[in-house]
Design the sequence.
């Protein structure tokens, strides 16, 4: 999903936002400050991509596929139970003691 995002593109985008009167060459204070940030941002993009892939059944690993299936089964079962309770409630007649 984020295949076009690279360390260089992140770093360059950040350096482009720095004023032109500041030295932005490799080894400068600003370059040395932004370089580790670009690495961390690239790591975060990779993690976001992983989270997105693990969220869908067709791209999830086995571990997360099992979790997705359990979640859907529980939701489906809960829905069925609530529908069953609702559909039978109108058929039941509750009597109080005076009616018997």
Sequence:
């Amino acid at each position: 999903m984020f295949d076009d995002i690279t360390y260089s593109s992140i770093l360059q985008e950040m350096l482009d936002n720095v004023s032109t009167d500041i030295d932005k060459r490799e080894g400068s204070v600003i370059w040395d400050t932004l370089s580790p940030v670009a690495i961390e941002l690239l790591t975060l993009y990779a993690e976001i991509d992983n989270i997105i892939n693990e969220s869908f059944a067709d791209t999830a690993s086995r571990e997360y596929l099992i979790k997705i299936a359990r979640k859907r089964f529980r939701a489906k079962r809960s829905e069925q139970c609530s529908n069953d309770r609702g559909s039978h409630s109108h058929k039941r007649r509750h009597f109080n003691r005076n009616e018997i």
